[in-house]
Amino acid sequence: MRGSCLCGAVVYEVDRLDMSILHCHCATCRKAHSAPFAPTAGVYREHFRWLSGEETLSSYESSPGKLRHFCSVCGSHLLADRASQPHVVLRVATLDENPHAHPKAHIWVSHDVAWLEYGEAVPSYPSMPSPEEIDQ
């Protein structure tokens, strides 16, 4: 399966997701992705390859020993890496193909903030609704 950043400068390939998809709600994922949670999955290093744009990557050590790798052009966060682990943590939303897997759990929900409420309490629309529809 191939994946890429928003601008297409960085492209990678994974043979498979080796671990379950988890929606991480930790405060650092929320900040790094500007989202209430980040879909993640572990991929063993031998099943992950950069195909192009590796020189475009930047990294940020968000906690001791944890590097978050992102495109220096568009800012897309692609994976997190701890050198001590046999796997990288892929940002599943950057896959360009369907991984044919479903999320297994939400983790670090103790970090949730009330103003990022989602779920049944917040209406859903198939596309961008008019302001009038939203304010009903």
Describe the model:
By secondary structure, the chain is mainly β. It has one domain: Metal Binding Protein, Guanine Nucleotide Exchange Factor, Chain A (Beta Complex). The strands form two sheets. Strands 6-7-8-9-4-3-10 form a seven-stranded mixed beta sheet. Strand 6 and strand 7 form a beta hairpin. It is globular, with a radius of gyration of 16 Å. It starts with a strand and ends with a helix. The mean pLDDT is 93.
Describe the structure in brief:
This protein is mostly beta strands and 136 residues long.
Q: CATH topology, which one?
A: Metal Binding Protein, Guanine Nucleotide Exchange Factor, Chain A
The CATH architecture: Beta Complex
Count of helical stretches: 2
Q: What sort of overall outline do the alpha carbons produce when their principal axes are compared?
A: globular
- Got a strand count? 10
Please give the order of strands in the largest beta sheet: 6-7-8-9-4-3-10
Average residue pLDDT: 93
Q: In terms of structural class, how would the helical and strand content be classed?
A: mainly beta
Runs with pLDDT <50, length 5+? none
User: For the record, what CATH class applies?
Assistant: Mainly Beta
Major sheet: 7 strands, mixed
One letter per element, helices H and strands E, the order comes to EEEHEEEEEEEH
The termini sit apart by 42 Å
Radius of gyration: 16 Å
Total tally of structural domains: 1
Helix content: under 10%
Q: How much of the polypeptide forms β-strand, as a percent range?
A: 35-45%
What key phrases describe this protein's structure?
136 residues, globular, three-stranded antiparallel β-sheet, Metal Binding Protein, Guanine Nucleotide Exchange Factor, Chain A, 38% strand, mainly beta
